[in-house]
């Protein structure tokens, strides 16, 4: 068996991540490859640092030269890999367990999509990124393996997961999704329709990068535009869509749509400030989506 560890990267240094994964894979006495594909980064210092990956055994760094997007680069990695099992890892991940690769290898006999999970540091050292940090830490208890397995398809996150090669070829990432967000939710829906099993395990990586409040809010809005485009293909896999449909039944979506332009400046000021509320962030997402549906 060959394991392919696939890492898409854009303007981020991931040499330390590759080195840690290579050391673990070596101890497992398996055939493996680590392929890092740069999706058109324009930060030369990141590119130069990542070129060092080529000196790490069993590892290669490819420079694509043009930015094609999150779905395209993952499909490219699949096409250029050789393993029967493909382990996808985001470039801003940090390994937090000596047995990370081994735990995934123990799951290969199940021939299913395996999701390891995501954690965040216990302390936030960047006050300007407090919105995402608070949101992620608030949501962490709901994303243990036991909780994720209650709704396995809706909880698929591409930050850290493994899938059989034949499943990846049968279900490529949708390259028509050009905006940020929800490509993993759509993939989960398609896997459910095809009857492919998804199993969630406690084998997390730490998300080592948090955007500042302004950028995170902007990415959230972009993701909601993606959700709006994909709404007819998602079934009930989006919790936000479920909340929206409940509002719609009571005509409350129209009230939010009417009030949002007035509330928005105040909400943005609060959410990008020093003490943002997670509950207010959730409300902002729902109100913004109602605004999009006009």
Features:
globular; three-stranded mixed sheet; 10 strands; 45% helix; alpha/beta; Spore Coat Polysaccharide Biosynthesis Protein SpsA, Chain A; 294 residues
Word description of this protein:
The protein has 294 residues and is of the alpha/beta class. It folds into two domains: 2-211, Spore Coat Polysaccharide Biosynthesis Protein SpsA, Chain A; 215-292, no CATH class. It is built from twelve helices and ten strands. Helix 11 (252-271) packs across helix 12. The protein starts with a strand and ends with a helix.
Secondary-structure topology with pairs:
Elements: E1 2-9, H1 15-27, E2 31-38, H2 44-50, E3 59-63, H3 70-79, E4 85-89, E5 93-95, H4 100-105, E6 113-115, E7 118-119, H5 130-139, H6 145-148, E8 160-164, H7 165-170, H8 183-193, E9 198-200, E10 205-207, H9 213-230, H10 239-249, H11 252-271, H12 278-292
Parallel strand pairs: 1-2, 1-4, 2-3, 6-9, 7-10
Antiparallel strand pairs: 4-8, 5-10, 6-8
Concise summary:
The chain is of the alpha/beta class and 294 residues long.
- Give the overall pLDDT as a whole number: 95
Distance between the termini: 52 Å
Low-confidence stretches: none
Strand order of the largest sheet: 3-2-1-4-8-6-9
Assigned CATH architecture of the largest domain: Alpha-Beta Complex
Structural class, judged by helices and strands?
Answer: alpha/beta
Order of helices and strands: EHEHEHEEHEEHHEHHEEHHHH
